[in-house]
Amino acid sequence: MNNPDENKCAPIIDLAAVDSDGSFHCPKCGTSISPDDETEENYKILDTVVSNNELSELVIACGKCGCKITLTGFQQSLEA
Question: What would you report as the CA-atom Rg of the chain, rounded to the nearest whole angstrom?
Fold first, then answer.
């Protein structure tokens, strides 16, 4: 039996708090997710939010478990 809350995964990750290369692990299954991976093997882009002509949010799904992860903090990481 599947518990509906068992599959619920919607964390928000602030990229300003992530290591300088932008890589992080899926909070649910631990898969390594890197912005350098363009194959969509480890993640898939679901949605983008642009504010003032700058990317402000990115919603991705983990390629292994499907966890939907919202990424924020793009302005800070680009300015650093």
Answer: 13
